[in-house]
């Protein structure tokens, strides 16, 4: 199996590796016409440990109802410290391994960045390549590009290329970007459809599962 998460790289080598993988991303719609199962994953880092909460949901044709059909919460020690811009080398390998344990959904929502990243390879893009599945990145953080109106949307633009869009809920801004095998327009529309308030429901649910698991661990 190709090594997509090499650990022993200098910063320059890691950036070059990111550029190489980014060139392989498919940023056009390459997903099923009918979406029946959606995956979601979020993670929390504290010290040397990473907690990952993920689930697969059965959904309806309107993407409004989400029934958990499989879930997992895992806490593991990180193999090495986080380096800004290279988080996917640390977190991505663990996340990919966890997500491979599920049956394949039609797409994954991953909390983090996609191509809206300085080297166009955030966590959702890196993991999307590893899984060879459509992935959508959703984040509260803005790390690259500038905001420009494209197709009537507040788009994230870098080097003249739209790399995502802003999903607004009141004063809150959520940054949505394609990870792999999906266009930025479709990534935005699917995230919007799945959002009842503030955040896409699948991600809200896995976040809540993680909070409950962490609180339970603290109490015991």
From TrEMBL:
It is found in: Cytoplasm. It comes from the Archaea. One of its GO terms (biological process) is DNA repair. Keywords: Cytoplasm, Endonuclease, Hydrolase, Nuclease. GO terms for molecular function: deoxyribonuclease V activity; RNA endonuclease activity producing 5'-phosphomonoesters, hydrolytic mechanism; single-stranded RNA binding. GO terms for cellular component: cytoplasm. It catalyses: Endonucleolytic cleavage at apurinic or apyrimidinic sites to products with a 5'-phosphate. The keyword NAD does not apply. This is Endonuclease V.
């Amino acid at each position: 199996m190709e090594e997509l998460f090499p650990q022993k790289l200098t910063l320059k080598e890691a950036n070059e590796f990111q550029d190489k993988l980014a060139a392989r991303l498919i940023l056009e719609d390459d997903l099923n016409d009918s979406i029946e199962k959606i995956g979601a994953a979020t993670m929390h880092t504290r010290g040397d440990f990473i907690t990952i909460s993920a689930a697969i949901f059965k959904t309806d044709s309107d993407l409004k109802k989400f029934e958990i059909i499989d879930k997992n919460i895992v806490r593991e020690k990180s193999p090495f410290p986080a380096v800004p811009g290279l988080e996917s080398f640390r977190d991505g390998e663990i996340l990919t391994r966890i997500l491979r344990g599920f049956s394949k959904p039609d797409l994954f929502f991953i909390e983090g960045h996609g191509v809206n990243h300085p080297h166009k390879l955030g966590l959702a893009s890196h993991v999307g390549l590893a899984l060879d599945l459509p992935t959508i990145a959703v984040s509260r953080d803005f790390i690259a590009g500038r905001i420009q109106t494209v197709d009537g949307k507040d788009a994230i633009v870098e080097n003249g290329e739209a790399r995502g869009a802003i999903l607004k809920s009141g004063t809150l801004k959520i940054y949505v970007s394609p990870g792999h095998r999906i266009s930025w327009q479709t990534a935005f529309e699917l995230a919007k459809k799945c959002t009842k308030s503030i955040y896409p429901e699948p991600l809200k649910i896995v976040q809540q599962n993680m909070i409950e698991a962490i609180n339970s661990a603290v109490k015991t």
